[in-house]
């Protein structure tokens, strides 16, 4: 089973590729900005 978060939990550290082909980590924004992560599982897929 995957990681389960509840309302109010802190997000775990993660790193994802940006659209500019550069890795971005959650910690890059700590203390600087709010972060929103949105997932679009069917984006860029046919149909």
TrEMBL record:
**Residues in domain Alkyl hydroperoxide reductase subunit C/ Thiol specific antioxidant?**
8-47
Q: Which UniProt keywords apply?
A: Disulfide bond, Methyltransferase, Transferase
Q: Entry's Pfam families? A: AhpC-TSA
Q: Name one GO biological process term.
A: methylation
Task: Report the GO molecular function annotations.
Answer: antioxidant activity; methyltransferase activity; oxidoreductase activity
Q: Which InterPro entries has this protein been placed in?
A: AhpC/TSA, Thioredoxin-like_sf
Protein name per UniProt? tRNA(5-methylaminomethyl-2-thiouridylate) methyltransferase
Q: Species name for this entry?
A: Fictibacillus phosphorivorans
